[in-house]
Amino acid sequence: MSDRRTLTTHGDIKPFVRDCLRRSGAIVEESGYELWEVLLSDDFSQRYPDEHLLLTFDAEVARETPESLFVTYGSPLLDVVVDQAKMYGKYTRLYWPGTSLQPPQNLVNKIQDQIQFLRCRPPSVEMIWTAEHLFYAFFFVCTFQSFEKTEELLPVVIDGYRGERRDDFFQWWDAMLPAETPAYNYTPASSLSAVAAYDLACSIAEHSAKERAQAIYDSSAVFRRRELSKIASYYMETEAALRKKWEAVQGDSADGADKQARLMAQIDATRADRQRRLVDAQDRYRVRTDLRLDHVLTLSVPRIHVRLNVQSGKQVIQPVLLYNPLSGQVEPIRCDTCGRPVTVVAPDKEGRFVCGQGCD
């Protein structure tokens, strides 16, 4: 992570501070409007006098909340964050901090509450085991160059086992202090390679960057129309004045014909200049996007595998579900037809579970 992102032209240092704190292993939670409650990790607590902080990036909120720490350019905390960011490399691996993982006693109830099996008997548990799962967190820096330049950090987390994006990952990862070395010993689950995960993350990041670029372009619509209207009005008035002069010399002597020719040339030049100015103005608002990988985290988290026996008619289907102890959730089943994660499933004729409401 580079401290260069603290100097972006739009001045939004909040994502930089948040991501650096997260990367250090600090616990960061929103506790109110523009207020973050932070428990610093060892990396930061050794460099900053207070371990527990209430941060805000809004000057008005800081005035209304005297116990909060206002973070802005020149703040001692920001200096510590920048110094810490300089120490990080491009790749970091972090681990779940526990030593052992036990399934909850009400696991079957959780499964029945969170996954609905249509046209089936209630499921029973055939086998339970725990495995270490890899999550790849790719952090891309997106630079958007338009009428102004902005830079944003775009995180994309890939679940290596399921081969899909996990937008909810930091909701439960941020609630714990990760370890730099594992204190547990679980067999690694099968996973996408780093290259395959990166290819998937690039595709997702490119799509997200395009959507963000379009949003930036759309946000400038009022200013764009106003500028284009001013340009069009100016040249319409200029051309009207020249046209009036041209009409005034009609029917004059040979000298008048020369004046008409010069005026018509000026009218043609005005039209051409107007077109150039309109194209230049449009181009100034067009959003050019640059996307590059900034750093990568590999995050290791144990999850509990649960093989079920689910009877439908005469057939018994044995799907494997995942229980995530950090979120306390049974994760959705992937439809065997469309591949979407779903919580309502039904058996098909081939003994597979598919979308219970029908595939899109």
What does this protein look like?
This protein has 360 residues and is an alpha+beta fold. Among the domains are: 13-88, Dihydrodipicolinate Reductase, domain 2; 220-289. The chain has helices at 14-24, 42-45, 59-64, 76-87, 107-114, 169-173, 194-219, 221-248, 254-285; strands at residues 27-32, 35-39, 52-56, 69-70, 91-95, 116-117, 124-145, 149-159, 164-165, 288-312, 315-317, 320-324, 329-330, 333-334, 341-342, 344-347, 353-355. The strands form four sheets. Strands 5, 7, 8, 9, 10, 11, 12 and 13 form an eight-stranded mixed beta sheet that branches. A four-stranded mixed beta sheet has the order 1-2-3-4. The radius of gyration is 30 Å and the shape is elongated.
- With helices defined by DSSP (H or I, 4 residues minimum), what is the helix count? 9
Overall 3D geometry?
elongated
Count of strand segments: 17
Largest sheet: 8 strands, mixed
CATH domain fold name of the domain at 13-88: Dihydrodipicolinate Reductase, domain 2
**Which structural category fits the helices and strands?**
alpha+beta
Element order, helices and strands? HEEHEHEHEHEEEEHHHHEEEEEEEE
Q: Compute the gyration radius: what is it? A: 30 Å
Distance between the termini: 40 Å
Mean pLDDT: 84
Query: In the CATH classification, which architecture of the domain at 13-88 applies?
Result: 2-Layer Sandwich
Structure described in brief:
By secondary structure, this protein is of the alpha+beta class.
Strands, helices and their partners?
Blueprint: H1 14-24, E1 27-32, E2 35-39, H2 42-45, E3 52-56, H3 59-64, E4 69-70, H4 76-87, E5 91-95, H5 107-114, E6 116-117, E7 124-145, E8 149-159, E9 164-165, H6 169-173, H7 194-219, H8 221-248, H9 254-285, E10 288-312, E11 315-317, E12 320-324, E13 329-330, E14 333-334, E15 341-342, E16 344-347, E17 353-355
Helix pairs in contact: 8-9
